[in-house]
Amino acid sequence: MSFFISDALAVGETVAAAVEGPGWQGLAFPLGILFFFYILFIRPQQKKGKDQKKMIGGLTKGAEVVTNGGMLGRVVSLDDNFVQLDVGNNTIVQIQRQAIQNLMPKGTFKVQSKRLNNS
What we know:
This protein is an alpha+beta fold. It has helices at 2-20, 24-57, 108-118, and strands spanning 64-67, 72-78, 82-86, 92-96, 100-104. Strand 3 and strand 4 form a beta hairpin. The radius of gyration is 31 Å and the shape is elongated.
């Protein structure tokens, strides 16, 4: 009888080891995937948002910008929430600050205005 009891204990120990799981080695792969996604997707997106906020905060009168809708204009006046843009032929458009996508180099607005007038 003792022969069967010792076998049962040996099987019980093996089952307990299998039920316990892989431990910290099992977490290495999922944590690696999370780290990979953070480096590849989350961090660049946060950096882009931070740069966008800095650019919007640093707008000045006379800056040439492009809006999210693709409208090119020169900043005429600034408010806490809104910006007035001259988009050509003394046409003034009021937009939200967050709608500004990019700052353009000086002279871009003038060159584009000449192209439209010559067409």
